[in-house]
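note to self: dont lose this again. the chain is below, predicted strucutre after it. 279 aa total, dont forget to put it in the shared folder this time
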Amino acid sequence: MNYSKKRSILLFFWLCTQIIFSQNSSKTNTNNYNIPDGVSTSNAGTAYSSVTFSGFPSNAKIIKVTIATRVQHEKHSDLAARVSTNWNGISSPSVVIYTAGSQGNNSGALEKSGTTSAFNDLNPNQTFYFRVWDTASENTGYIDAFSIRIEYTVPPTVTSVSPLSANTNEEVTFTIKGNYLTSGMGFHVDNLENIQELSGGSSTRRYFKGTFQQYSGTKNGVVKDVPNGTTLFNFSVNVSTPHPTVSSVSPLSANTNEEVTFTVTGENLTNNMQFFVEN
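---
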């Protein structure tokens, strides 16, 4: 039986699920690779197709792999196949796609797809090999298409927090800078009250606000991947109580034997300030 070589593009549609900072990437190889006719399991003809991923951060980790394969062959029961990150297709980690004799005596297109956790925790910078063995004689075919979609996470990293100084009784907005930052991170500074995350953040910047109601001094702070999670960054804030300043006192005229109320206007005024006018 002769096949006209045709190439099939396998399309994937997926949702990006955020786990820490989750992303997807896919590769498809539609080149055709002839599978030599084999004699037996121990003397099989073999061919492979591969896809290579690169350019990912060194701390990224795979959390799921979706595989799709297509082979054209005259007798499916002749075939065995695996997907692996090793060229030989056997060394761990690898996934059995099908074994010899498991696919019946059908001919034509043999398509398989599914997800696996076999490659979890590997860095995504990998070459994946789809290797096929022909374990019996007289029937031939070829690899038609091979696709891999990886889902991976990149843990957030924090490079700085600012400002590192603040005043009591004044609301302050903190800016966290880093990479792969997510909403809902853990943020805490000693004695900082009413902490809220602000909108407008991104994967490189997040914003939190709060107020130091009292207690000046050096306050320890921490940023975590999630509240009560893993510590990403430690810092300290120097909190001061600003000196009061007076801009005006009124009124500046009064009558004898009449009670008068004076208004002192300024900034950072406090209770129990001293007020004195002669007589």
